[in-house]
Amino acid sequence: MSEKLYAVIDVETTGKGIKDNRITEICIVLLRGSTVIDKFTSLVNPECVISPFITGLTGIDNDMVRDAPKFYEIADRIIEMTNGAIFVAHNVNFDFNVIKGEFRNLGYNFIRKKLCTVRLSRKLIPGMLSYSLGKLCSSLHIPLEGRHRAEGDTDATVILFQRILELDPDCILINKFLNARSKEATLPPHLPAEEIDALPEDTGIYLFRDQKGKVIYVGKAKNIKKRVLSHFYDKKNKEYALCQATYAIDYEITGNELIALLLESEQIQKYYPKFNSAQKRPVAPYRIISYINRKGVTQLAIDRSPVTNDSFDIFYSRDSAVQKLEQLCAEYTLCPRYCSLQSTTERCSHYKIKNCKGICEGVESVALYNIRVQQALQSLQDTKKSYLIRENGRTIDEQSFVMIQDGVYKGYGFINDTEQITTLEDCEAFLQLQNHTYHTTKIIKSYMHKHGEKNVVSII
Asked: For 161-209, what is each residue's pLDDT tens digit?
């Protein structure tokens, strides 16, 4: 039996994620090999209010901790007990990072090797329905008294860890987990390391799934593996909660960032993942529309709508829409009043556009004026071209394309280098249809602004 020194630890906290989370109770049981040699338990004054929710969960209220020692008063005892020991906990990253945060507030860098009994149990005791401490103890007939109290949870974790030591008598798995190159100490407790190792270092999207298989986060990356790992190293509360809820990761290689961005947007709209914030809320862009007023004059106006397919043009700010209307007014000698550039009911008096031919005063005929309005609208329609954006594929002998037909995003596809595509019909066999949205329009416009016509191929 190994004679390593282990400090099995559990903390109860004020429940504010990782950052700003304060300890309300701590228990440390020191083991030499599998033998208990010391124990320390104490309530802790968190120096902040404990919420009713946390009190309901742990039973620890503000009165109980009022006269308890503050963390700095027991810090030396914690350092003494854990010095030279391996930090062991059920879901170790939570307890370790909370304690590390408390020490950081004191200006001390708390560093210890770590072992997670959740991850060890998944390896050595496979096939359990759940690896939460309560359900695991129930399945293994481990006594657990005082659930959600530091001492009760620590005592149960000690028994669980002693069984793990029996199942790994030569510490082969434990030594592997303690290896400096091992990811076991930093990965989410429910995610197998093999799944991370299998992630590609290619451009594409990745999807985090919860215990029921539901997609809870969608991301895109130039290097999928590197980006996924960055989530696990991030100590922000939201990232920590995401990692704790992740049980599986799917991915899709796209070969280039443009399709990754478009596919990420599509998947967010499809799954509405819990941990995504961007692109979930419907966005209504500004657009130029036309209508016939009571005098029969075709008026132009600025409107907001999430539907963009029937718009003459869409804009991401009102100012840019106004600038476009001013440009049309000047170029086609339209009336600012009938282009919604001023609200007066009298003759137009725009500060910049002075070439109105008098439709607002009844000087010009409605028919002639409407002809120029239609010409202006046609100029907007003419900008809605059909074209392909050619980009790298997923392999060296493959290319990809993004199709825009009459200004509307249709989808993307992958083709072999030997394939020739010049017409819409050529694309149909390879096209993966996607939705045209505000977000996809913005992604494509941003791409065109950055790359210009370099990768654009006109199609018939």
From this structure: 999 999 999 999 999 888 766 666 677 888 888 888 899 999 999 999 9
Q: What is the 3-state secondary structure (H, E, C) of the chain?
A: CCCCEEEEEEEEECCCCCCCCCEEEEEEEEEECCEEEEEEEEECECCCCCCHHHHHHHCCCHHHHCCCCEHHHHHHHHHHHHCCCEEEECCHHHHHHHHHHHHHHCCCCCCCCEEEHHHHHHHHCCCCCCCCHHHHHHHHCCCCCCCCCHHHHHHHHHHHHHHHHHHCCCCHHHHHHHCCCCCCCCCCCCCCHHHHHCCCCCCEEEEEECCCCCEEEEEEECCHHHHHHHHHHCCCHHHHHHHHHCCEEEEEECCCHHHHHHHHHHHHHHHCCCCCCCCCCCCCCEEEEEEECCCCCEEEEEEECCCCCCCCCEECCHHHHHHHHHHHHHHCCCCCHHHCCCCCCCCCCCCCCCCCCCHHHCCCCHHHHHHHHHHHHHHHHHCCCCEEEEEECCCCCEEEEEEEECCEEEEEEEEECCCCCCCHHHHHCCEEECCCCHHHHHHHHHHHHHHCCCCEEECC
pLDDT of 362-383, one tens digit each?
Answer: 899 999 999 999 999 888 876 6
Specify the pTM. 0.68
